[in-house]
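Job type: complex structure
Entries:
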Amino acid sequence: MPTLVGVFSRPKDIGQLAEKLRGRGFTDLEIFSPVPSDELDRALAPGPSKVRYYTLIGGLTGVFTGYAMSVLMSQDWPLIVGGKPAASYAPYTIIAFELTILFGVLMTVLGTFLVGGLPYGKFGKTDVGYDPRFSAEEFGLVVRCKERDVAEIDALLRSAKAREVSLVEA
Amino acid sequence: MTPPPAVSVAELMRPARSGADSETNRDLLAVMDAPGLAYWGLLGFCVLLVHVAGAVWVYQVYEGLGIAGYAHPIFWGVYIVTFVFWVGIAHAGTLISAILYLFRSKWRNAINRSAEAMTVFAVLTAAQFLGIHVGRIWKSYFILPYPNQRGLWVNFKSPLVWDTFAISTYATTSILFLYIGMVPDLAIARDRAKGWRKLLYTALALGWQGTSRQWKAHNRTVLHLSGLATPLVLSVHSVVSWDFAMSIVPGWHATIFAPYFVAGAIFSGFAMVLTVMIPTRRIFGLERYITDYHFDNMGKFILLTSLIVGYSYMTEYFIAWYSGSEPEQTSFWYRAFGPYWISAWVMIICNAFVPQILWFKKARLHLPTLFTVSVLVNVGMWFERYVIIITGLSREYNPAAWNTYTPSAPELTILAGSFAFFGMFFLIFIKLFPVVAIAEMKELVIHEKEHQGEFWEHAHGYGETR
């Protein structure tokens, strides 16, 4: 499949172009960016990231685990002082709090791997069209298309102020 | 719009031009260049000191805790003082990374990476002191709730168990926070490195290419990690303070302890960041990235936290007097005018008085002054923990059990070793990983360029002629 790469120097150009291309039915797009940019995020995938669900699930698991572990373990090995109940919830809140954070953090990191397609998606290799320039200060838009659309996309890329357009795969 | 140029597929097929690199990448990756003799000398000194301290520790394991200066009833000495000190140092990194991130303070970008790294190394250093303090290191796993054949569980009402949970959560979180934030920069290094470094960065960069999917997940993750780390950082030193406040020792049993310790931790953490960053900036020529503006802000932070710490000292003394409780009053009188008066006054002068010079902008921008203040604050904060722990224990309720503690040579050697341990890791880190967050610095550079571009386009009608 022909793959075109346009190199841009400003994220604004690329964001608008990506939306335009999507509007014309060219949906097999990828953006390479050296810096995070809200515009670019919105251009390809609108809506908030799904990482938040991972954090929520992790946090809830943590708070439940924290209370359950401390209560069940103190019931199992009761240290009765002054005839009071073996489990005391106030200090166990600290355990529950710490585990909420711990599990939340671990699940968030898992989320970034799964949602972001890390790690080792293509270990040691890079996607077609990736260039070290995209970890410098330039932005890349990769478009996969049918052969008959190459000229049209090339023109669109150039009209959107691409500094350079190249066909990396025929 | 101009009509599309007539191009053939073959014409377009050409190898990608070898990439122009950005100045930011070059400058900031240059820090990792082959080190000079001074670096090796300093690293060698640190490694040597770590080994000396390690040997003393092995000797202590063999001999028992008798070689520490403990004197009944003072069984918490330099090791616990140093543990609390390093946990405190570990607070600045998360504060800079998480809290300032949530407040969208852009000035954190230049210093957040090094501060996060310091956090990780400080937590690792602190964690060791729990093992060193226990003496019988092979029994330290008793603090973990693990199933054993006696059906015995840990006591979840004990602050020491809370500490285990807080410190291990903090260590895990700060390591992951540092790493996740560093992934885009590791990809930058991967694209430019050769040899074994290429291999290392390829593995660690996890295949990062800066696709919008990756950035989107990354941004959300950093936001959530910041959100989680903010209450965590406040909880960790609160829990450490409760190791003391939950007891009935005069001078320890106070509700002010949690906020007082958290403010002190941030205070000492910022001071350590300055102590390390002022020489680092100079040695590696990072003046363009870590500017006077950053030091000015850090100076203000130190001043603010110094005021909080100074206020806490006053509150402690006031409440001791106002409480009418004789043990409490005696304890605080003894602190200031007893045999430990030097420590107490070092603490008060270094922490509450010396930083007042930072009211003056001239002082905040004069690096030798700022550096001196930061070192004195570190000294003062170590002594703060020393004063709290030692004076508290040496005069409890029963005068028959009063005693005086003097740190022994092995304890002081291990204390010195802890600084070497921290320094060793930081020195290795500086040469292996980007010490300034490159992608985040570049965000500022590109943002600036974008705005200049807009201005230019507007003024010259760039858009129409093209």
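Summary: The radius of gyration of chain A is 25 Å. Helices of chain A lie at 11-23, 38-44, 51-76, 89-116, 150-159.
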